[in-house]
Amino acid sequence: MAKTLPKTDAVVVGVGWAGGIIAAELGKQGIKVVGLERGKERGVKDFYVVHDELRYGIRYELMQDLSKETITFRNQGKERALPMRQLGSFLLGEGLGGSGVHWNGHTYRFLPYDFEIKSQTVKKYGEAKIKGLQVQDWGITYDELEPYFYEFEKAAGIGGEEGELGPKRANPFPNPPMKETPITARFKEAAKSLGMKPYHMPSGNMSQAYENQYGAKLAPCQYCAFCERFGCEYGAKADPTVAVIPFAKETGNVDIRNFANVTEIIHDGKKATGVRYVDVQTKEEFIQPAEMVILTSYVMNNTRLLLASKLGRPYNPDTGTGVIGKNYCYQILPGSAGFFDEEQFNTFMGAGALGATVDDYNGDNFDHSDLDFIHGGSISINQSGYRPIQYNMVPTDTPKWGSKFKENSIKYFTRALSIGTQGASMPVQHNYMDLDPSYKDAYGLPLLRLTYDFTEQDKNLYNYIGKISDSIMKEMGPAKINDRQQLEHYDIVPYQTTHNTGGVIMGAEPETSAVNNYMQMWEAENVFVIGASAFPHNGGYNPTGTVGALAYRAAEGIIKYSKEGGLLA
Amino acid sequence: MSEHEQKQESTMSRRRFIRNSGLVAGGLVGGGILGGLIGANMNKDDAANDNGGHGNGHDQVAFQQSPLYFTNPEIFGILQAAVERIYPKDENGPGANDLDVPFFIDRQLAGSWGNNTREYMQGPFFPGSNFQGYQSPLKRHEVFDVGLAALQTYSNDKHKKPFAELEGEQQDEILTAFEEDKVKLRGVTSRTFFNILRAAAIEGVYADPAYAGNKNMEGWKMKDFPGHQMSYINQIESKKFVEIKPNSLHSYTS
């Protein structure tokens, strides 16, 4: 029998970036917030002994415990979905701060084109250009979102320089860019000589000591190279446990409960009345009544909770109707590995978001009239620091083990560089999420089922952008460049990216979207669903900057709703 | 004894251990308890002559060179032979055995990783497509049990000799057959076993020495990787390659 707790104004499910921002902004306004976080409390003090590649980088200590909860996966609807038993393709977070603790800090703003992708593409190229793609406009423009982007960049202390082809900014970055290194300089020179316009990657690793709007003091990044997959022992990374959660707690209005795993949104079909959760340590069950329910528990869990709670219209892949689970997207990642036989680089030094980028082949910055795909991607070099277990880059013809492998993996550890692309991913009718009919989590809830495969659009984008990436690498002067593998079926095993999107998408019309541009559910006005789950497609950049902007937009809407009620858009 | 001589001595004694494991495996000494005792004695002898490389003092015993998972020297000998082929000693530096990789793997199998404690192990189990990942009901330590035993059986069937006694090329052929999924195992594919074995061997070469492999940080030294360093802020802009003496997690407490 679940114990019913005293009612609160707002209950927030998942306390990472989005949940932390909502808690801070609502708490500041005197709104009482209960934050429910399934993982443990953690902060800078817990990362004193963090430079341990095996523990964090390979065994994934900061990531989700899959023995409790995972997803199931299949490429196509006619297959049987099977559980993702081990982490691989993407690394789900767990614990206070969520993935914001272990991210790298690449912080871009999606392009104006992204928010109006359907109308702009059709206007310029005609309706045929989007045939087979389930693209739609986001129900908000870049100009409308611009101030919210800046609010997030201030909270996260982003350091950078404006790119010529990127979105226009009303204010400069809160911090200067990170340091230039021989590796970033080499990339920029090569890109410039090809007529492209490189700039320093916008970074959530502090380029100098910084204090944000919440009074959080962040330290300068030490370039120690243990960033992605690790927590920062310096408090030098934009991390919600450093940047926003302490302030939220200081308001006196925010009660964050750890080890609280939400299993159900309680509702009457029109409004939610609270959530049910289980204390994962004691196994006790609680009901937390609330005026407003705010989901900030990542793409997968936001979608699963709504489906399991039967809130909102489930997506139907046969008809393309319904919305919850719709438009799951990933990323397309062509890259180039170059081998420099005569030069040695300090590849083991770095910072998560130390790098340089070009936008010349992103969005609609280049003409697609004669191309068989839309959108593109940002192409970057990223000096986040090689680690010896994970980084064994070798020329293609090297065996996978034995003496030759040993020789090449040793030689090229400091002599190989790679260029990567964050390629946009377009939604199609048959890529989606629903509930698995047979597999359950540790609490008896059905697992989320992911049905996903790469499409012709993806393959065409991959091949085209891959050649551009090769041209930059070639210009950087390596002795050889690896052949790129063909993009075929999506494989859940090798790590690719944790930039999953969709499932609870935003838009201007209730018929085709789940939430409006305040992240408010069309069908349940006191439920807000925030995160990359709101992206109708995935753009050509890392998503966190855009997630942050949407969180600030949602915070404004929630505050407004708490006073006035009703649908906000 | 100079440091160089000490190192040679230690390498020699470990070779003796490996050779003797081979003898045990070959049945020349006899199996069962007798073989186990001889293996254990060799190990003790080896440790006593060795400063271990895991500390910086004198007369330290390398307590980490103690099996916690494997209890059968014949099986441990197969593991030693297999990882040495994956990461061999050669002109580039020490191989898996000199780096204590088998002891690293042994400890990993005894712990959380070997028991898949943070992974989804609920049934039902189905083979799955090539894109759906690990679907075996076996835990990793069981995969090693099955896989190492199969290496021995395959070797005995094909060459009438235990795996550890074969020539390197013959061992490579067998490992390749496993890698190419040409061997039928119970509960897991031979390719999956091989891939886990390979990954674990590389981890043992390069993980922090706290985990019992990467002896003396020699794995890192081969790659010019300086391990755990607090800061590169003063070197990150350097146009020249910077050589830095490696440092391990041990420095947090020393």
TrEMBL record, chain A:
Keywords noted in UniProt: FAD, Flavoprotein, Oxidoreductase
Domain (Glucose-methanol-choline oxidoreductase C-terminal) ranges: 427-551
Protein's UniProt name: GMC family oxidoreductase
Gene Ontology molecular-function annotations: flavin adenine dinucleotide binding; oxidoreductase activity, acting on CH-OH group of donors
Pfam families: GMC_oxred_C (PF05199), GMC_oxred_N (PF00732)
Ranges for domain Glucose-methanol-choline oxidoreductase N-terminal: 199-329
Keyword Secreted appears in the UniProt entry: no
Family: Belongs to the GMC oxidoreductase family.
TrEMBL record, chain B:
Transmembrane segments: 21-40
Pfam families given in the database record: Gluconate_2-dh3
InterPro entries named among the record's database cross-references: Gluconate_2DH_su3 (IPR027056), TAT_signal (IPR006311)
Protein name: Dehydrogenase
Keywords in alphabetical order: Membrane, Transmembrane, Transmembrane helix
Native source species: Sporosarcina globispora
Origin organism lineage: Bacteria, Bacillati, Bacillota, Bacilli, Bacillales
Domain of life: Bacteria
Keyword Transmembrane helix among record annotations: yes
